[in-house]
């Protein structure tokens, strides 16, 4: 015959499990968002103000000095107040209320930028908040071209970026992009408008390599490649800007190159190590790219010093894929040709069209 | 670009084309504003194009030729208005417009030659756009001048790309074409 002690043990164990489950029940948990610096009062469910209760934060009992009757009062909350709060009836330890407190801020005006680094395929917009909100935010972006809404395809990563395909090219109609950010504590938005040409900015040139020229102590040969993101350099040619200086001087020297992906520096100081960078820009529109990765090189000396480039690894990986053509004639851009007169600026461009047309007659 | 030369400073839009509308003579000096809407100005060839990459050489050349034919007339009109009403004393500006007009004319001529060379038919001369209304206010004249230069700037950017595409494709079919020409 079975001992009566065993069922009694089982009942007691079941009771303990029930109480434990009640204390740790997740069923009624909800999230409560509060602003940084706010005073927060929590009620213990439907319990009366004068009921005896116990509050816990992340499982630890809260000192009674934070109670106003059965209400929990948290003054001037900060991020450390975030956590799980629970309230139990004083004598029975029945869970009466449970919440997850998240302290944060409403979003400030988001920072939004759009850029085409793969013109004429499309452009992308990316965004971020100037300050963290500490709570989840939802972003919604709307891209309009005149009256037409365009689809902005979001990246899986990074999540703060989306891509738009150009449906029209050479348009004077402005794009209007609105980004709205919403969280539990508020919302904000920012709108930018721009023209198609204004946001064209290539990525920096790639695989920049600089090396000494044998038997020539004042020359450095620099070559690079178009940014791989630029889809059609043949029809949308880039021009380049090269800057270089000896490490011992602060003053950069510049040279603008209307074509070609190489240049020979002819005025280097003998024996001095140089730092060299290249930037790219569409021939007619948009802005200059950021500077490429810096490379270092020292002109040839009779007893060769350390000839080096930071891009040597890249050079070996791309060896044979690019031809090293003779350096193009250096063209120093005359600023007046661009900004001197609106009419002249058009003439200048028309001139380049004529030149392009001329190619066809050759 | 920080050290990219002073002509790029503060010119987020960059490029030769947009300096037309940035430039004081057309915008500030004539009392206009860069944000002003030019939507109401009609009759100016629009460079906007969809599916640009899919255009044939003939379509590209025809569209360009048609546009520059209209620009010849429009630039003449702009020049006349500047001389007569808006900037009668600014002969340098008139000379610049005149120079542009000559280049546009030369370009239209070259486009006609190209069409002939590539054995494409010339587009018909389109009926003249809306008659230039003498009763336009000075402000409307200024807006129209700005619109003409703005669209011309976009057309020149487009044309360079169009001609690159035509070159690329004609080089691709050059052998066949050359063979025919020699026969």
Can you put this structure into words, describing what you see?
The complex is a heterodimer of chains A (362) and B (183). Chain A has 362 residues and is mainly beta. Helices cover 14% and strands 38% of the residues of chain A. Chain A has helices spanning 5-23, 312-318, 335-339, 342-361, and strands at 30-35, 40-42, 53-57, 60-61, 67-68, 71-74, 83-89, 95-104, 111-115, 122-128, 138-145, 148-150, 153-154, 161-165, 168-169, 175-183, 186-194, 206-213, 216-225, 238-246, 253-257, 262-265, 274-282, 295-297. In chain A, strand 9 (111-115) and strand 10 form a beta hairpin. In chain A, the strands form six sheets. In chain A, strands 1-8-7-3-4 form a five-stranded mixed β-sheet, with no helix packed on it. In chain B, 60% of the residues lie in helices and 1% in strands. Chain B has five helices and one strand; from the N terminus they run αβαααα. Chain B is mainly alpha-helical. Mean pLDDT of chain B is 77; it is low at 1-24 and 175-183. Chain B is elongated and about 50 Å long. At the A-B interface, strand 15, strand 23, helix 3 and helix 4 of A face helix 1, strand 1, helix 3 and helix 4 of B. Strand 15 of chain A pairs antiparallel with strand 1 of chain B, so a sheet runs across the interface. Chain B: Belongs to the CNTF family. Chain B: GO terms for molecular function: ciliary neurotrophic factor receptor binding; cytokine activity; growth factor activity. Chain B: This is Ciliary neurotrophic factor.
């Amino acid at each position: 015959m079975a001992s009566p002690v065993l069922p009694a043990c089982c009942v007691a164990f079941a009771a303990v499990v029930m109480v434990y489950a009640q204390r740790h029940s997740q069923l009624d948990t909800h999230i409560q968002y509060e602003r940084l610096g706010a005073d927060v009062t929590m009620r213990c469910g439907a319990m009366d103000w004068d009921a005896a209760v116990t509050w816990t934060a992340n499982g630890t009992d809260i000192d009674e000095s934070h109670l106003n009757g059965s209400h929990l009062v948290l003054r001037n909350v900060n991020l450390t107040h975030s956590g799980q709060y629970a309230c139990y009836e004083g004598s029975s330890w029945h869970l009466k209320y449970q919440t997850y407190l998240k302290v944060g801020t409403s979003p400030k005006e988001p920072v939004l930028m759009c850029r085409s680094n793969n013109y004429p395929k499309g452009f992308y917009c990316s965004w971020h908040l100037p300050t963290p909100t500490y709570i989840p935010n939802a972003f919604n972006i709307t891209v309009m071209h005149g009256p037409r809404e365009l689809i902005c395809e979001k990246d899986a990563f990074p999540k703060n970026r989306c891509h738009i395909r150009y449906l029209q090219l050479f348009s004077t109609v402005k794009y209007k992009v609105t980004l709205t950010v919403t969280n539990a504590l508020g919302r904000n938005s920012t709108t930018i408008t721009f023209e198609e040409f204004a946001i064209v900015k290539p990525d920096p040139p790639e695989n920049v390599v600089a090396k000494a020229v044998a038997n020539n102590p004042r020359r450095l040969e620099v070559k690079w490649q178009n940014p791989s993101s630029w889809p059609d350099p043949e029809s949308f040619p880039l021009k380049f800007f090269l800057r270089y200086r000896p490490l011992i001087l602060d003053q950069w020297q510049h040279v603008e190159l209307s074509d070609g992906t190489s240049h020979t520096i002819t005025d280097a100081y003998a024996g001095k190590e140089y730092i060299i960078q290249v930037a790219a820009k569409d021939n007619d529109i948009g802005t200059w790219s950021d500077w490429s990765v810096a490379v270092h090189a020292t002109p040839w000396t009779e007893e060769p010093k350390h000839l080096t480039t930071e891009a040597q690894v890249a050079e070996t990986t791309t060896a044979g894929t690019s031809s090293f053509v003779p350096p193009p004639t250096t063209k120093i851009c005359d600023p007046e040709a661009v900004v001197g007169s609106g009419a002249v600026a058009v003439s200048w461009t028309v001139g380049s069209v004529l030149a392009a047309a001329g190619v066809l007659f050759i | 670009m920080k050290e990219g030369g002073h002509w790029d400073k503060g010119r987020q839009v960059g490029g030769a084309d947009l300096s037309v509308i940035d430039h004081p003579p057309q915008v500030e000096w004539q009392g206009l504003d860069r944000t002003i809407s030019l939507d109401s100005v009609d009759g100016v060839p629009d460079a906007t194009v969809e599916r640009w990459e899919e255009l044939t050489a003939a379509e590209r050349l025809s569209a360009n030729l048609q546009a520059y034919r209209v620009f010849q007339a429009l630039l003449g009109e702009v020049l006349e208005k500047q001389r007569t009403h808006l900037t009668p004393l600014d002969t340098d500006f008139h000379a610049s417009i005149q120079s542009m007009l000559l280049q546009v004319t030369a370009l239209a001529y070259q486009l006609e030659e190209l069409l002939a060379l590539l054995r494409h038919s010339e587009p018909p001369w389109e009926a003249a756009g809306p008659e230039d209304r003498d009763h336009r206010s000075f402000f409307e004249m200024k807006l129209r001048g700005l619109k003409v230069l703005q669209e011309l700037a976009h057309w020149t950017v487009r044309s360079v790309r169009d001609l690159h595409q035509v070159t690329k494709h004609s080089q691709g079919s050059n052998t066949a074409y050359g063979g025919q020409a020699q026969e």
